[in-house]
Design a protein that fits this description.
The chain is α/β, with parallel strands linked by helices. Helix content is about 45%, strand content about 10%.
């Protein structure tokens, strides 16, 4: 009996050692830098499955948006090897590309199904100056959420939109037509989508400034008018407060990123008073329907220590299976064409996001000066809507700021303005 048990034990040990050895990255670990949102939550959930499949341990490090930009920029520019994967927002690509590996050889080697990535999305998120620096894993156009019990169909232009707001707004009963994140970091993005949908741009494809335009003036006036239909506290709100007002039933329309809070919580009775009474829609179409894109891509820093394991994670996290799981559980919008065509996705109330992205979701300048340009926009828009500056001063501030940035940080030769 003892001899039999001994043989069994030996066989079990052999099986365990063999199984361990078969895991390609056994004993290794990778460290990932993520935006502190649903993207990081999904990564943490999948880390155990990845370790079971590959033997590689995964550590997810997360920071809020503004802090993430600083942390990522410092790590990349100093050659820090702390992170094996970073996940830039698409507008940071031009700034961070020099510090990232080109993934093209790995894509070719492993026959990565790159044709399934939405082409227009990839051009704006993960590709820069002929280099593949990242694989996009989200595809979120700026849209709005609205109450389906109060609104049959969202208006297609701003005149009709404000007529609807007049009917819905009821401050006496603490009910407002709009829930708006009024802090500068979010409100400026809302203004961008209006300016672009009216046909406006900051500059043409050759970087000639076009910000001083009738479209810019009209869009600023529209954004300022929003505040007439919002809670008086809205100028101090961020996304959490705006989304909370909508979920509490205190607003008919939310200018938001609905996937971050409204979609995951909207039909949860414990967190929402609008269960079954909300949907998403593109912003008023106006001239062209162009809206703001929020996309994140993931790539491998040149200084990374475990590049093969990092690439394995990228393939894993951006796979069709995980893209579908991300959508169904976390409301992360897919970057893969095939996932958008699945019945459970097409029937979901978030499907209008896909329609909005196809009609035109773009990002602002992706050159190294892009983040600084965004700061000029934030200050101009914020000061205008709070009556600190008049229209002419706000536009001149943006124009002068953009002119200085393009002189101090000129785009590389041959790089066109593919944003707005």
């Amino acid at each position: 009996m003892k001899k039999f048990l001994g043989i069994v034990l030996i066989l079990l040990l052999i099986a365990a050692v063999t199984g361990f050895a078969q895991k390609k990255f056994a004993g290794k670990s990778i460290r990932l830098l993520y935006f502190a949102a649903t993207y990081a939550e999904a990564a943490k959930e999948y880390s155990k499955e990845f370790e079971e499949k590959t033997g590689c341990k995964v550590e997810v490090v997360e920071f809020p948006y503004l802090t993430l930009y600083e942390k990522m920029g410092l790590s990349l520019s100093t050659g820090d090897s702390s992170y094996d994967i970073v996940t830039p927002a698409c507008q940071w690509d031009g700034e961070f590309e020099p510090f990232m590996d080109d993934l093209a050889p790995l894509i070719k080697r492993d026959k990565f199904d790159s044709e399934d990535i939405i082409p227009g999305l990839w051009e704006q998120s993960g590709k820069w100056a002929g280099k593949i620096m990242g694989i996009p894993f989200s595809n979120t156009p700026q849209t709005l959420a609205y109450r389906t019990d109060l609104i049959k169909e969202m208006p297609k232009n701003w005149d009709d939109f404000f007529k609807l707001c007049d009917k819905l707004n009821n401050p006496a009963k603490n009910f407002y037509a709009l829930a708006i994140p009024g802090v500068k970091e979010q409100f400026s993005g809302l203004w961008m989508m209006v300016q672009w949908s009216l046909g406006g741009r900051w500059a043409d494809q050759n970087w000639n400034l076009t910000i001083n335009s009738a479209e810019t003036r009209k869009s600023l006036e529209i954004a300022k008018k929003w505040m007439k239909y919002a809670d008086p506290a809205a100028p101090a709100w961020g996304l959490p407060e705006s989304d909370a007002a909508f979920l509490a039933g205190n607003a008919a329309i939310a200018f938001s990123w609905p996937t971050l809070s409204i979609a995951p919580n909207g039909d949860n009775p414990e967190k929402s008073k609008v269960v079954g009474k909300w949907a998403v829609a593109p912003i008023p179409y106006e001239k062209n329907g162009v809206t703001v894109l929020s996309s994140w891509d993931m790539g491998i820093p040149k200084a990374a220590k475990n590049k093969d394991a990092a690439w394995e994670w990228i393939k894993f996290y951006t796979s069709k299976e995980k893209q579908l799981a991300n959508f169904l559980k976390y409301s992360i919008l897919p970057s893969r064409i095939s996932v958008w065509q699945k019945p459970e996705v097409k029937s979901n109330k978030l499907y209008p996001h896909y329609q909005a992205s196809q009609q035109g979701a773009v990002i602002w300048w992706r050159i190294p000066a892009g983040t600084m340009a965004e700061a000029y926009v934030r200050d101009a828009v914020s000061n205008y809507i709070t009556d600190q500056w008049n229209l002419a001063k706000a536009i001149k501030f943006m124009e002068d700021g953009f002119k200085k940035l393009l002189a101090d940080y000129p785009p590389a030769k041959g790089v066109k303005n593919t944003g707005r």
